[in-house]
User: Which sequence fits this backbone?
């Protein structure tokens, strides 16, 4: 039987960077320990964007701006991407990276608490075709609920890292004490979104796990 790591390596052999500049961006981030979406995740995300061609995207968790730039380039600048980052240093770094990658016209960065920022977007009557959640895993339910007034029928919500390096598969009471709350929250979140009659949701093990939910 083929080991899981061999399967991942084989799948990753099909990965092709979207541009030489983004290849360098990824390499620099990985060398510095800055989180970027995994290669498998990027491939799935790219396919979803190609199929949907969304015009308005909301991202929760900018980090260094890699995924926002990727989405902008994948859609050839035809989408308006709003991305929220709470950490000011990361926000400033992302600003520089977005400009460097030539994505400043399509990527709008917000430095704020995600929940507060989403409430303001709601007050501004903003709507999004695609939502990408990749921030604090223990708050996914809260991010999801705040995103509800910002989407319409046909919108898609993608949540990254839902398997949390496999720990989500372990019942919370069997995990080390320091991880129990995060595991419990994520397991409850996945149960919540997969049992919702308003969404068609699938959970896949690409990357560190992704949930893909289409608003019926």
Assistant:
């Amino acid at each position: 039987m083929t080991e899981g790591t061999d399967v991942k390596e084989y799948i990753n052999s099909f990965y092709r960077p979207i541009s030489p500049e983004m290849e360098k961006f990824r390499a620099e981030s990985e060398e510095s320990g800055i989180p970027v979406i995994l290669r498998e995740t990027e491939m799935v995300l790219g396919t979803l964007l190609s199929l949907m061609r969304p015009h308005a995207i909301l991202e929760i968790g900018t980090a260094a701006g890699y995924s926002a730039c990727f989405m902008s380039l994948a859609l050839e600048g035809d989408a308006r991407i709003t991305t929220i980052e709470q950490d000011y240093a990361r926000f400033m770094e992302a600003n520089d990276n977005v400009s460097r990658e030539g994505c400043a016209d399509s990527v709008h960065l917000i430095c704020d608490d995600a929940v507060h920022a989403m409430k303001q977007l709601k007050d501004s009557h903003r709507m999004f075709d695609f939502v990408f959640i990749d921030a604090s895993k223990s708050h996914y339910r809260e991010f999801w609920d705040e995103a509800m007034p910002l989407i319409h029928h046909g919108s898609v919500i993608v949540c990254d890292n839902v398997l949390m390096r496999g720990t989500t598969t372990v019942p919370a009471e069997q995990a080390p004490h320091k991880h129990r709350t995060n595991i419990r929250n994520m397991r409850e979140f996945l149960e919540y979104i997969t049992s919702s009659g308003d969404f068609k949701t699938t959970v896949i093990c690409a990357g560190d796990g992704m949930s893909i939910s289409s608003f019926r």
Remarks:
- The CA atoms of residues 64 and 179 lie 26 Å apart.
- The radius of gyration is 17 Å.
